[in-house]
Every structure is written in structure tokens, then in C-alpha cells.
């Protein structure tokens, strides 16, 4: 049975995927007994964490991760095996994390951002290269995944991949049958007039525009005004069919049978199916044939890290197959760790919604790239027009 406490993917900003985390108080209680977590705490209030780090000297690693994005037993296991104290802090979105690292007032050793944000951090010289001699378990990451990461980390110098996945369409089979609507196979299906009031779109600039851009065969990283204008007009035409632009509620509304289809992250399908286990509600997930976003989150080392080798030990530990498998079973977001896949139950690995044939997905799929502030504005300005329409 899937865990009730799990990581929730959420809001993306104009420059790509970011996360909005629902942190349960129970998790905070559990984690506090193991390591220090800033649950809902302002990141500038770090006296306690820094004091703990100073007390440990060099025998510490300062970790900055999204909330509920790790099995809470993993840091404890790392401490027991290495003797290195884990001082752990959390952020809600990539956009919240970035200025903290940029300012350098709080010095973290290992941080877990998303693909486009990693590229932005690299471009602004906020990262150190990883010494992969200290991360021998990097060999467990599939070669195809490492190649994909080169789209935002040329030469694979800065990132140790952590999780990956796709964006697709979650759909309720019975509700679609009742509406006389075929099960979706492409983004264009989200413009079917019969789905009026039954569509949940992501309340996110890049994800919403990705749907419209890929529908027309364009790159999700386009900065072409003509292509973006076409996508905007498509989204305006679709808007009367949309029940709501939401984030985490896509998952909850689909569980509650409040909508027939929803744009969502692939890792959520296991949670949804787990919640509906024992009911007659059938929910499935489709990766649209026009192509979609293939996303990555990965561990990096900030420019001012004080305990670089400890960070690399942390990364190596997370790449160990048994640890990667343990993490997957907790957060249910796909792992690029080939060694871990061999340890997982076939009910997971044979689920093509979670672990699709990536070679097929990448024929038309793309990784979000950082577009720069000027091009971000192109998306933001059109998003405002859509919301006001």
C-alpha cells in the first residue's frame, strides 16, 4: 500500500518546473527526531542549523531539498553508516531556493533543484563541479538518463540525477465512457467540446503553454513570438472547456471524480491508483503522442559549500540501488537508477505510465531549458492575457 505521506509536485514558474509542497505535521515530527528540518520556517532563520553545523565541524553535510522528497529514514541511515551528521532544510519551490543559494548567507553543501533551475545556476556560476571519483555509484544511473541530463548539464559535470518523469494526461475511464469521449492519446484531445467543464489544466505558465505548443508540433522551449501567439490563441479557445487551472488539486479532484481528465506529473499515478484501490474507479495515464516534457531533479553542490566531499558522499549514498529503491517506494517518483529498478516489484517497473520506454518518449519529448529573463517575459505576458480572457 502506498504511503499516505508523499511528495507532491506542483506549481511551475515561467522558467520551468518548480514545486509546491504540502508538508504534513506528522512528517515534521518524525523527521525532527532524526535530523533538523525547517518545516514552514523562513529560510533566513537558520541560526540553529548553522550552530549545529559549527558544532559538528567538518563532520557534517548541510542538505537543502524540497519537502517530503526523501524517505525520512534515509538521512538516519546515512548518519549511521558514515558518521556524518545531516543538517536538513526544506524549500517549497525552485524560485524560493534560488535566491537563498545566490545570496550565500546560508551555506548548503547539497541541493536538489530541477533541470531548468540547475541550468540557470550554472550560467550564473552558483555551482561547483562534482568530483565523480567520490561518487562511484553514479554508474547506477542509466546511460540514457545521463545523456538526457546533458541538455541542461553539458558534459555531465554538475549534476547527480535523483528523479525523473513526464507530464501527461490522467483520465477517468468511466466518466469518459459516459461522455462518449475516446480515451486521450494526444494533447489535441483536450480541445474536444464534449469535455466542457471536465478538464483540469496545470496553473503553470510553462506547462500550459507546453500543451498548446506540442499540440501544434512546436518546441516547448520556443521563443518565437509567432508560435507563442498561436499557442496563446489555442489556450484562449480551450479555456471555456477548462473546469479549473490548478496544481496539487488535479490529483485530489481526479480521486474525487470531480473531473474526467487532468494534466499531471507521472509520479502521481501510483498515488492516485493506491488511493482508489478497492473501488470501481479506473484511472489511467497517457503520454501524448505529440511529445511532452521529460523532467529531471538532481543533486548539485553550491558555489560556497564548506563540506564538498561530504556532499559527494551524500550523493553517492543516494545513488546506491537499495537506497534509491527505498526512496522511490516512499515518494513514488520515477528513479533513473538502473540498479534500483532491478530491486523493485514488477508492479512498479512494468507500469508504463511511471517507467515508459524513454527512447520512444524522447523522440518527441523535451527537457525544459532556462530561457533567460527576456524570454521568460514573453511567456509571462501571454499568461496574463490568458488569465484575463
From TrEMBL:
CDD domains: PBP2_PotD_PotF_like_2. Keywords: Membrane, Periplasm, Signal, Transmembrane, Transmembrane helix, Transport. InterPro entries: SBP, Sperm_putr-bd. Pfam families: SBP_bac_8. Spermidine binds at residues 68, 116. GO terms for cellular component: periplasmic space. Signal peptide: none annotated. Gene3D superfamilies: Periplasmic binding protein-like II. GO terms for biological process: polyamine transport. The chain crosses the membrane at residues 21-38. One of its GO terms (molecular function) is polyamine binding. SUPFAM superfamilies: Periplasmic binding protein-like II. It is found in: Periplasm. This is Uncharacterized protein. It comes from Oribacterium asaccharolyticum ACB7.
Amino acid at each position: 500500500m502506498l504511503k499516505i505521506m508523499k511528495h507532491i509536485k506542483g506549481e511551475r514558474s515561467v522558467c520551468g518546473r518548480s514545486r509546491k509542497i504540502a508538508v504534513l505535521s506528522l512528517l515534521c515530527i518524525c523527521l525532527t527526531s532524526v535530523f533538523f528540518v525547517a518545516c514552514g520556517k523562513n529560510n533566513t532563520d537558520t541560526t540553529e542549523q548553522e550552530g549545529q553545523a559549527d558544532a559538528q565541524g567538518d563532520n557534517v553535510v548541510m542538505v537543502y531539498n524540497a519537502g517530503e522528497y526523501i524517505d525520512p529514514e534515509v538521512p538516519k541511515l546515512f548518519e549511521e553508516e558514515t558518521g556524518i551528521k545531516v543538517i536538513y532544510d526544506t524549500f517549497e519551490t525552485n524560485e524560493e531556493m534560488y535566491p537563498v543559494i545566490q545570496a550565500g548567507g546560508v551555506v548548503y553543501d547539497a541541493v536538489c533543484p530541477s533541470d531548468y533551475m540547475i541550468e540557470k545556476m550554472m550560467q550564473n556560476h552558483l555551482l561547483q563541479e562534482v568530483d565523480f571519483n567520490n561518487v562511484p555509484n553514479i554508474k547506477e544511473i542509466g546511460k540514457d538518463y545521463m545523456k538526457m541530463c546533458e541538455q541542461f548539464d553539458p558534459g555531465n559535470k554538475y549534476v547527480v540525477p535523483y528523479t525523473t518523469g513526464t507530464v501527461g494526461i490522467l483520465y477517468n475511464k468511466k466518466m469518459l465512457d459516459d461522455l462518449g469521449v475516446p480515451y486521450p492519446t494526444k494533447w489535441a484531445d483536450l480541445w474536444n467540446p464534449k469535455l466542457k467543464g471536465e478538464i483540469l489544466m496545470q496553473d503553470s505558465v510553462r506547462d500550459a503553454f507546453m500543451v498548446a505548443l506540442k499540440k501544434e508540433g512546436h518546441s516547448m522551449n520556443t521563443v518565437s513570438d509567432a508560435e507563442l501567439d498561436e499557442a496563446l490563441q489555442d489556450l484562449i479557445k480551450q479555456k471555456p472547456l477548462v473546469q479549473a487551472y490548478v496544481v496539487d488539486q488535479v490529483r485530489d479532484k481526479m480521486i474525487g471524480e470531480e473531473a474526467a481528465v487532468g494534466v499531471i506529473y507521472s509520479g502521481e499515478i501510483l498515488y492516485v491508483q493506491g488511493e482508489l484501490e478497492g473501488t470501481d474507479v479506473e484511472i489511467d495515464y497517457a503520454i501524448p503522442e505529440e511529445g511532452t516534457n521529460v523532467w529531471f531533479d538532481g543533486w548539485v553542490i553550491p558555489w560556497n559549500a564548506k563540506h564538498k566531499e561530504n556532499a559527494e558522499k551524500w550523493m553517492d549514498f543516494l545513488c546506491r540501488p537499495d537506497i534509491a529503491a527505498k526512496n522511490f517506494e516512499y515518494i513514488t517518483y520515477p528513479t533513473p537508477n538502473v540498479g534500483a529498478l532491478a530491486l523493485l516489484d514488477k508492479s512498479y517497473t512494468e507500469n508504463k505510465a511511471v517507467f515508459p520506454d524513454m527512447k520512444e518518449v524522447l523522440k518527441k519529448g523535451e527537457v525544459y531549458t532556462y530561457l533567460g529573463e527576456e524570454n521568460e517575459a514573453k511567456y509571462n505576458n501571454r499568461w496574463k492575457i490568458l488569465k484575463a480572457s
